[in-house]
Write a structure and sequence with these properties.
Length: 156
């Protein structure tokens, strides 16, 4: 017998807007700011805090990864990856709040590509005239600690 899980969604955005809403896992729907949409309409890329909470509850009850995946509407490999990447490394337990913090930290640390500014362009031109290769220019900028586009961009 399949058991439905109910919980209240506490947050839907980075601004922590409190929008009280409840949903049942096992029914393929996701929360948006306006309403609940069917799974076929919404393409999820990252797990939400609410999905992590569902993983936490069901893993505490000893549910299998396959059952958890079916209940929250993602693949079994997504659950496996989530449990492996976001568990507490000290004791191996999974906590949804810790998992969300780890996810947000990885998001912030993810680097953005530098834009090829006029300063960079002038630096590249002067170093190319001095006989440096694009790989050397990129390597030198990394060693000196200033932003530089990739050597592929310099070749263009």
């Amino acid at each position: 017998m399949q058991q439905n899980y109910r919980f209240e969604i506490i947050s839907v955005s980075r601004e922590e807007n409190l929008l009280p809403c409840s949903t049942e896992w096992g029914k393929s729907c996701y929360f948006t700011a306006s309403n609940l949409l069917p799974k076929s309409v919404v393409k999820m890329i990252h797990l939400t805090r609410e999905q992590r909470y569902g993983i936490f509850l069901m893993s505490q009850e000893g549910k299998s990864r396959k059952d958890i995946a079916k209940a929250i509407g993602v693949s079994e490999s997504t659950i496996s990856r989530e449990l492996r990447r976001n568990c507490d490394k000290r004791n191996g337990s999974y906590d949804y709040d810790l998992a969300q913090r780890k996810y947000e930290t990885r998001l912030m640390l993810r680097g953005r590509k530098p834009v090829f500014t006029k300063e960079m362009k002038d630096t590249v031109i002067s170093l190319l005239e001095e006989g440096y290769s694009p790989e050397q220019i990129k390597g030198r900028s990394n060693m000196e600690g200033f932003a530089m586009v990739s050597h592929e961009t310099i070749y263009r």
